[in-house]
Amino acid sequence: MKDRFNLYRFASPATFYPLAGSLIPYFVAVSVVFGLAGLYLGMLVAPTDFQQGEGYRIIFIHVPASWMSMFIYLVMAFWAAIGLAFNTRLSGMMAQALAPTGALMAFLSLWTGALWGKPMWGAWWVWDARLTSELILLFLYIGYMALTAAIDDTRRADKAGGLLLLVGVVNVPIIYFSVKWWNTLHQGSSVNLTKSSMAETMLWGMLLMAMCFWMYSIAIALIRARTIMLERERHTDWARAVIAGAHE
Amino acid sequence: MLNIIGAVIARDLKLAMRRQADIVSAVFFFIIVVSLFPLGIGPEPELLRKLAPGVLWVAALLATMLSLPRLFADDHRDGTLEQLALAPHPLGLVVTGKVIAHWLVSGLPLALIAPVLGIQFDLSADALLVLTGAILLGTPALSGIGAIGAALTLGLRGGGVLLSLLVLPLYIPVLIFGAGAVDATVSGLGGEGHLSLLAAMTIAAVGFAPWASAAALKIALE
Fold it and tell me: Distance from CA of residue B66 to its chain's centroid?
């Protein structure tokens, strides 16, 4: 039974470190392929929107970034739950490795949203329900990163951060709906994205770009997780061997 | 079960009464922040009436934040917290007692002083009533959610600023429905719906948040 494949073996940093290292090039390659295909479809093939002109093409960055910002928070909460339930070291490292990418995606989503909003709505920022909840999501990411950065003991940082993520994930729907109701009470329907039926090429371009962003997030999170692993496990033999090998 | 909650409330209230200056300064912080807004915005009654619910609620949020770091810090410093964690009672119940005591010394005084400040903003009698009710109903949720943040940041450097980073985004729903209740009353829609949602949030927060903050305390005490 010694050679049977066992997924749990990779819960140890010593075995996950080389695995992550060999996976990263594939995720990078897949991300680049999807990105090139998505950009080609989005920028060259997809037709010009009859209402919004060429400016709508920012959607191919904006929507994937928004999706990823929400998805990454859920993935972090998943790792937090695993970490708190099974007391695994790797889970906290994965959550911490994902956080900056999630915050970056939330920021990109807000930034491209502002660039898109100026020509379409005539304002950089409106207190639309989706914009506001995206902003709050960015605050949640920053809160998580600030908390884990403030705790020196890494075990406590992982657990406290994990608990915060779980509390946050329970609160996200509450925040989203309260912002939505608040918005409909205050704003009326002055700002509404007219969801015209989307051309098929636009949809495909967006999905390809979403895949590109997804694979990029995995690759960059694995790179960051490898660095965190080395830093935390620097007293172990395997980490010393890796660092010594890198210096040769 | 009620014994331990009652004992913790009585103890925390007794400690708070020995240090009344802390309570009073939080209340004066609330009064000063609220009074600054007319000075910054201008004295037009029409404008002030419109801003009053939001201003009072934001000030209430900040005033609650002020007293949160001390929720567990003093007990942590002198070792009481560890004894409470070792006690046979569930730590969640102890925290429930502390949350209720925190509300009694921080939320309740704000609700009592709020109508007076509302008069400064030229609110009608109906609106004042709803404002007081909303603050009464909503501030326990602030104490409950805040306890999680206080437990997570226990003993950290820069704990106070960090606490506000963690907790303020989670306060947003309470702010929206608390201020919304007064707005809805002023505009004639009636604030019952908002008040019901506030009450629901308070029940959820006071019921569940202490268990999450008990888990956070155990992490901090490890």
Answer: 9
